[in-house]
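Case study: Aldehyde dehydrogenase.
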Amino acid sequence: MTTESVAPKAQEFKAAQPAAAEAAETAATSDASKPTHVAETVAETVARLRKTFATGRTRSVEWRRNQLLQLQRLMEENEDAITEALAEDLDRNPVEAYIADIAVTVSEAKYAAKKVRKWMRRKYLLLEAPQLPGRGWVEYEPYGTVLIIGAWNYPFYLTLGPAVGAIAAGNTVILKPSEIAAASSRLIAELVPRYLDRDAIAVVEGDGTVSQALIAQGLDRVMFTGGTEIGRKVYEGAAPHLTPVTLELGGKSPVIVAADADIDVAAKRIAWIKLLNGGQTCVAPDYVLADATIRDELVTKIGAAIGRFRSQDNPAGLRIVNQRQFDRLSGYLAAVENQGEADGKAKVAVGGKCDASNLRIQPTVVVDPDPAGPLMSNEIFGPILPVLTVKSLDEAIKFVNSRPKPLSAYLFTKSRETRERVIKEVPAGGMLVNHLAFQVSTAKLPFGGVGASGMGAYHGKWGFDEFSHRKSVLTKPTRPDFSKIIYPPYTERAFKLARKLF
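Here is what the predicted structure looks like once written out:
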């Protein structure tokens, strides 16, 4: 996932502050909206939340359920305002705003509220003979005060979604929305203190300087969603404090389309997810590896699907979030054009036009770009889809495995044998067969990366686990005292008995 939210800049800092007065119902009012010394204000916010955590009130199941249900209400009662913010930040249409930010966040919160009592229960375990008599269990303990650094591409789901697990686990939570999605960040800062416990859940707005100041506080856990490069910086910032970190990053998620795939369905599904949010989705297909026997048919049908999905009322291109990202993506296409002129191999089969006046890029399909070129060396994170030709499944698997492990991997095939082979041989954060992106929208499966695409996982019970310390507890009686066999002085008889027991 490409992000800019940790690049240090001199920018206004805002923190949602509690107040007794009615005027403090929003997060960005009065003194909270004035420039303040970042480190001091961050320290005050962290101290306030730590003080709340120390009271123990966030540990009760009642508090957790109430906050989760309030989060659900926040999303449901403000659907119109959220949709408007997403349109302003990302040119998102109402349907995509609902399915990709609103509905999934509501579903996560609702599911956690239903299950949190069960998740909190002690997990009793059978003990080995040397531990008897005794009783052992896992106690799920909140970390304390945790930080969630959200992303700009799905600013509500990727900020409030992780908060579901953190709240369910009983933590106090600092939310740092991305400043790149400015309208969404402002709305989150306004709504959170209106619906949630202001002394336990705070919103801090600002740029990368603010993120760095927060991490420097030595919080109890940090979760970051964004690009691999920035993820490393977050990890480095947390290291001096030994703060545990969850990183949901990105990478180049491949799609393998086997010779036996249903090409009609594959083309439509690939086109759909590549158009969603302008291709600015961490689990969007970054490139396609198509069997040579079906490549031309696949490219033609992807182009046809793009044409059907983009009505005449749509602008010619998809809007990119800002100038920096537009320049990056248009630069990739310029490199492809230069390559095509040089060796005649790379070809823009669909789209390819860029309009700098409104930051729009046409949905684009590039056939056989240079595997070592910029388009294939960086996460694309935009409406450009390379399609590379492979002669066999062996070649496709080898190609994917020669690169850093992706956040997601996709396969289209009708063969069970092919499916099982790719599942076993291609490492990735997650895998989906015969569709794309749906693995992100369920609370019943963990979501996270591996290697360069991240560490840790969340959603549903896995989010609760990620934000909980699993404390081992063992209790033993004092009488009868069977431990006397291990007390010195050691006898031959005790040694023989110990060999049998241990």
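For the exam, be able to explain this: Residues 94-120 form the longest helix (27 residues).
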